[in-house]
Specification:
It is a single chain. The protein has 163 residues and is mainly beta. Helix content is 0%, strand content 71%. The protein has strands spanning 2-12, 16-28, 36-48, 51-62, 72-87, 90-102, 110-123, 128-141, 152-161. Strands 1-2-3-4-5-6-7-8-9 form a nine-stranded antiparallel sheet, with no helix packed on it. The relative contact order is 0.12.
Amino acid sequence: AYDIALKYSGKFGDNMKLAGAIAYSDYPSDDATRQKDKLVNGSLSFLFSGISVTGAFGQMDYQNVTSTDPDSGKDYYGYLGYMANFTDAGSTNFAIDYGKYDETSGIKDDEGSTYALYVVQNLNAFSTECYAGYRIYKREDLSALNQKFDDISALFVGARIKF
């Protein structure tokens, strides 16, 4: 078994940052039905003047033993954020994201996705962040069973106090 990873992060000027990583693994599987699994994944994030963008991906290649085994699991993720200073209390941050997952559960033709909208208000005088978010999870099994699942919606509200 072996793996390798490359990472980079840098700052350009006063208000631009870039960070990224990519990794590759080749290892024997713990699953007795598969001989070997290979994994590649990576991400890239960019921040410029209050706008942040992130993209990520991953792929697991399976060595199939039967026709019902998946060929590979894949996932994709995207994030877009914006930070603004509307008040003297602290910055206000907005974000949306989306993730797509295909056969990552190890089940042939299994698919899932998620997307969310978040807002965070920083209260600098209290070292506190107040946040609210809404996320939807979707899953669909397109295998021979053709199972259908209801979407899951989640509302997140809270605060984080830093001390």
